[in-house]
């Protein structure tokens, strides 16, 4: 916190009726109590961001408009005593130290010879008395012994000797083009190169009034301005005269400070205070050491033993009248460049043209009444230009002063109501005065007060009576409104009306146009619109303060005093998005807790502790600039990074991130912050306390960090934005993820392949077992086929023997022997060639022909495209089909036309084996067949075909059907097999 007080700039003149009063500038004063390291301040400097740096013998301080941040050797300074500062084009703030060690501040860090190698010099230093940024952006540093100076180009240091024998008084220099330096001595200038070689020399006389030039030259440094002062002449570094000082006061050449603002106003700091434009003398009797301006163009003046002073940039439009009254102010009224006021001594004063006049001296009043501060009421009414009447309701009497500027006719009267009903406030309502006591409101025509006489008792009309009246005001129609414990009422003439405010009652309220603004007992500010019709009530939130008094400024503005800063209620122009606004006013010049305020439409007046501050309404209504924010550092784990627009840092798991920022605000003091941390373009604003943001264990990724700020009196600042990218760890990089995914996919593929292989092996094993089983079963079926065939054949031989057909039986046995030999050779194999099966069928049909003679005819047709020797089939694959045709088709028919045909052919790599007969047909065969002998051979063939299809992995189909062609009806058995 800082301490503010009004500096007395002139000798106190005792106030009396008709006395003159000094008009001064409002000044702010900062000392060690406000946070300065010392009251001895060598200089103040504004850096490129707008921060102010203060140099003292006990460390330095940086001021952001809100508070002072102090730095000492414990913070990295090489010396606590620093004389001044200078910032170069690289943003390095150079410090002029007492011990001569080089040091600059950048990126929140002090750089010295300890941590920055090029700053270490090879010679013993004396204190630095000059730091200058040259035209080529290099930095020149001069030392007090005047023997040498250094020039720093980025991180390279050149040392130049300037101690020339026989030449005295070296005090200034600047760099020329081509690497030359122009050095100024007491009686000459010399151009030298960096090897100290003199290139050019000429004599020059700087002193225009003193014979000894060495005692009339001084070097001035203020902000980035460098001047040379010789007696009453001011020169630029090129020794061109730019100003002649015309002040009548004697100027000391020990340490004059010269400063020009952008408006070319001339400021001169001396041992006897500050001079402005050679005419205005402020801060007398102190030694001024430096001058600069902040970003709001306010003037900062440092002194040798009295701290810092601040002059408002609109000092011409501000007036401070010191010791303008005594005690407390009771009432004030301003009009036509005149300020009227009454203080606790019950006198009436006027302030005009820097003079105070006592218009009414209560001490000379014939009636002596005790002073009771709570029981009074005052009012000034304007009859015409320069014609004012004054009413002083005090205790049970009325003091009426007619035409206070000219006639001043005094008319004392008795109050028109009971004793003890002291007046609290008065309202001028056109042709009558409205007087409020603690529980009643009276109305009385103004003309009744103007009758002559003493202690008259004119009649007054009782307008309203209530248990307790808290607030009381009139609207634009001169209707009287008042608030009681039971609600809000208004009076129209003599009629009492209760508007629709519900249960809302006001502790205080005031009208501004068609708006009623007041606050309730629970400190809720309420704004009522459309008060003549259906009232609209709005509650004002987000104002953390305690409401106090209402003061009209003009037709659209009302000032509200609070426990901290003033609030300004503004009626916005028609068509605005919001009808009204409530904003803070943070002007350090204004007294925070003024006793009274009044306005004449152009200027406003604040009364505080005997002083009166006058300022233009336009200045009062100036909008406050929002704070300016700067990112400083980001701390991640043990590392610190300087923050620019973008920063990429490696991921450190489990580490928190701390982001610090700085605030700059020379108007608003109470700052609130909001921040957003988002990984998308969508903001996520949160409230923030303090000057840092902590990110707890952040994940890797891209973060957009934004901060904005506002003061009580300003809008939100434009958010500052910073992009922080935390690079992913190796296990989250694309190449590692790709490798990991590939590894997982490979593992899955291998696992799936392994599972498939295991399943395949298991299935293969099962299939092998099944196939082995099938082969065994197949062999068993083949074994069954062989006995079946033999049984049928022997049965046929028995038939021939029984018929005593020996020749046929012998032929039959011969063919049967060949057939048995073929069958025994074939059945030992799993597969035989198709030709061998055809040969076996041929012999079998020959046997059956011997048996049935003319009752059986047959034919075997093998297509020439069929390679019967290469195609492999199981043994007894076709014979059971032929046997089945004979047994169930041909034999039951008993006809000489009976015929069995075996046709073998290929169609599109499909082998077709067709056995057809023109026997009795399927229906008759099924009907006549017994269950015992039902197609044993045929069923056996079906099962064998199914097993063979699985064993060979080929598709084999079996089909029986009947067809009809031009030769008759045929039963066809067809086997198809893939080759």
From TrEMBL:
<dbReference type="InterPro" id="IPR015943">
    <property type="entry name" value="WD40/YVTN_repeat-like_dom_sf"/>
</dbReference>
<dbReference type="GO" id="GO:0000155">
    <property type="term" value="F:phosphorelay sensor kinase activity"/>
</dbReference>
<dbReference type="Pfam" id="PF06580">
    <property type="entry name" value="His_kinase"/>
</dbReference>
<feature type="signal peptide">
    <location>
        <begin position="1"/>
        <end position="22"/>
    </location>
</feature>
<keyword id="KW-0812">Transmembrane</keyword>
<dbReference type="InterPro" id="IPR036890">
    <property type="entry name" value="HATPase_C_sf"/>
</dbReference>
<dbReference type="GO" id="GO:0016020">
    <property type="term" value="C:membrane"/>
</dbReference>
<dbReference type="Pfam" id="PF07494">
    <property type="entry name" value="Reg_prop"/>
</dbReference>
<keyword id="KW-0472">Membrane</keyword>
<keyword id="KW-0732">Signal</keyword>
<dbReference type="InterPro" id="IPR011110">
    <property type="entry name" value="Reg_prop"/>
</dbReference>
<protein>
    <recommendedName>
        <fullName>Signal transduction histidine kinase internal region domain-containing protein</fullName>
    </recommendedName>
</protein>
<feature type="domain" description="Signal transduction histidine kinase internal region">
    <location>
        <begin position="777"/>
        <end position="855"/>
    </location>
</feature>
<dbReference type="InterPro" id="IPR050640">
    <property type="entry name" value="Bact_2-comp_sensor_kinase"/>
</dbReference>
<dbReference type="InterPro" id="IPR013783">
    <property type="entry name" value="Ig-like_fold"/>
</dbReference>
<keyword id="KW-1133">Transmembrane helix</keyword>
<dbReference type="InterPro" id="IPR010559">
    <property type="entry name" value="Sig_transdc_His_kin_internal"/>
</dbReference>
<feature type="transmembrane region" description="Helical">
    <location>
        <begin position="731"/>
        <end position="752"/>
    </location>
</feature>
């Amino acid at each position: 916190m800082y301490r503010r007080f009004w500096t007395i700039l002139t000798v106190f003149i005792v106030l009396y009726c008709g006395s003159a009063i000094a008009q001064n500038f409002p000044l702010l004063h900062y000392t060690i109590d406000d946070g300065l390291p010392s009251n001895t301040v060598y200089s103040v400097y504004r850096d490129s961001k707008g921060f102010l740096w203060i140099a003292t013998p006990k460390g330095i301080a940086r001021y952001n408009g809100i508070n002072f941040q102090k730095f000492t050797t414990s913070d990295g300074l090489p010396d606590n005593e620093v004389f001044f500062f200078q910032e170069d084009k690289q943003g390095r703030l150079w410090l002029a130290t007492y011990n001569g060690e080089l040091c600059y501040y950048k990126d929140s860090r002090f750089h010295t010879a300890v941590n920055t190698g090029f700053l270490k010099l090879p010679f013993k230093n004396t204190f630095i008395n000059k730091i200058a940024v040259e035209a080529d952006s290099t930095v020149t540093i001069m030392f007090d012994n005047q023997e040498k100076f250094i020039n720093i180009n980025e991180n390279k240091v050149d040392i130049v000797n300037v101690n020339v024998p026989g030449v005295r008084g070296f005090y200034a220099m600047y760099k020329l083009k081509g690497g030359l330096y122009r050095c100024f001595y007491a009686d000459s200038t010399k151009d030298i190169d960096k090897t100290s070689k003199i290139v050019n020399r000429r004599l020059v006389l700087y002193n225009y009034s003193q014979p000894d030039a060495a005692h009339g030259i001084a070097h001035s440094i203020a902000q980035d301005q460098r001047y040379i002062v010789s007696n009453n002449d001011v020169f630029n570094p090129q020794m061109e005269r730019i100003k002649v000082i015309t002040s009548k006061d004697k100027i000391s050449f020990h340490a004059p400070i010269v400063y020009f603002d952008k408006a070319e106003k001339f400021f001169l700091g001396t041992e006897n205070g500050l001079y402005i434009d050679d005419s205005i003398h402020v801060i007398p009797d102190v030694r001024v050491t430096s001058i600069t301006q902040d970003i709001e163009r306010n003037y900062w003046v440092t002194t040798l033993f009295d701290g810092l002073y601040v002059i408002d940039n609109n000092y011409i439009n501000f007036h401070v009248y010191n010791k303008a009254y005594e005690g407390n102010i009771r009432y004030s009224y301003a009009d036509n460049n005149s300020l009227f006021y009454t203080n606790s001594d019950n006198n009436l004063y006027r302030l005009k043209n820097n003079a105070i006049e006592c218009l009414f001296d209560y001490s000379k009043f014939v009636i002596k009444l005790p002073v009771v501060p709570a029981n009074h009421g005052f009012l000034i009414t304007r009859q015409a230009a320069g014609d004012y009447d004054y009413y002083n309701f005090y205790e049970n009497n009325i003091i009426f002063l007619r035409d206070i500027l000219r006639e001043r006719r005094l008319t004392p009267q008795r109050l028109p109501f009971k004793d003890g009903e002291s007046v609290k406030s008065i309202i001028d309502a056109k042709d009558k005065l409205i007087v409020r006591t603690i529980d009643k409101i009276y109305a009385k025509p103004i003309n009744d007060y103007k009758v002559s006489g003493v202690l008259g008792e004119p009649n007054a009309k009782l307008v309203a009576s209530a248990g307790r009246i808290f607030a009381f005001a009139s609207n634009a129609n001169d209707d009287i409104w008042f608030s009681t414990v039971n609600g809000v009422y208004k009076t129209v003439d003599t009629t009492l009306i209760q508007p629709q405010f519900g249960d809302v009652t006001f502790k205080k309220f005031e009208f501004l146009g068609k708006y009623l603004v007041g606050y309730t007992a629970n400190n809720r500010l309420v704004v009522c619109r459309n008060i003549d019709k259906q009232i609209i009530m709005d509650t004002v939130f987000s104002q953390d303060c305690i409401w106090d008094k209402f003061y009209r400024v003009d037709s659209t503005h009302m000032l509200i005093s609070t426990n901290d800063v003033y609030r300004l209620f503004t009626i916005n122009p028609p068509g605005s998005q919001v009808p009204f606004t409530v904003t803070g006013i943070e002007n350090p010049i204004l007294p925070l807790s003024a006793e009274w305020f009044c306005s004449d439409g152009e200027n406003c007046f604040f009364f505080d502790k005997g002083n009166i501050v006058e300022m233009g309404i336009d200045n009062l209504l100036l909008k406050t600039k929002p704070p300016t924010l700067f990112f400083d550092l980001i701390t991640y784990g043990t590392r610190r990074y300087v923050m620019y627009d973008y920063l990429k840092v490696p991921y450190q798991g489990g580490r928190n991130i701390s982001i610090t920022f700085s605030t700059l605000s020379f108007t608003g003091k109470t700052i609130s912050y909001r921040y957003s941390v988002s990984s998308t373009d969508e903001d996520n604003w949160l409230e923030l306390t303090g000057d840092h943001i902590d990110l707890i264990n952040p994940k890797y990724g891209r973060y957009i960090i934004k901060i904005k700020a506002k003061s009580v009196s300003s809008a939100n600042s434009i958010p500052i934005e910073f992009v922080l990218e935390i690079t992913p760890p190796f296990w989250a990089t694309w190449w590692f993820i790709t490798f990991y995914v590939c590894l997982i996919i490979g593992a899955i593929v291998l696992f799936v392949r392994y599972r498939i292989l295991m399943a395949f092996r298991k299935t293969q094993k099962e299939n092998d077992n099944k196939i082995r089983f099938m082969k065994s079963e197949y062999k068993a079926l083949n074994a069954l086929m062989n006995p079946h065939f033999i049984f049928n054949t022997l049965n046929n031989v028995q038939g021939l023997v029984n018929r005593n057909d020996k020749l046929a039986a012998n032929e039959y046995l011969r063919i049967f022997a060949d057939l048995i030999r073929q069958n025994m050779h074939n059945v030992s194999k799993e597969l035989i060639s198709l030709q061998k099966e055809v040969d076996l069928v041929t012999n079998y049909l020959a046997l059956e022909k011997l048996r049935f003679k003319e009752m059986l005819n047959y034919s075997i047709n093998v297509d020439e495209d069929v390679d019967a020797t290469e195609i492999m089939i199981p043994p007894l694959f076709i014979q059971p089909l032929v046997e089945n045709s004979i047994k169930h088709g041909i034999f039951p028919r008993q006809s000489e036309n009976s015929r069995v045909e075996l046709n073998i052919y290929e169609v599109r790599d499909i082998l077709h084996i067709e056995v057809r007969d023109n026997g009795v047909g399927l229906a008759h065969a099924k009907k006549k067949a017994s269950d015992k002998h039902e197609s044993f051979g045929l069923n056996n063939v079906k099962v064998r075909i199914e097993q063979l299809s699985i064993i060979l992995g080929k598709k084999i189909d079996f089909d029986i059907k009947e067809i009809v062609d031009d030769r008759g009806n045929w039963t066809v058995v067809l086997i198809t097999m893939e080759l």
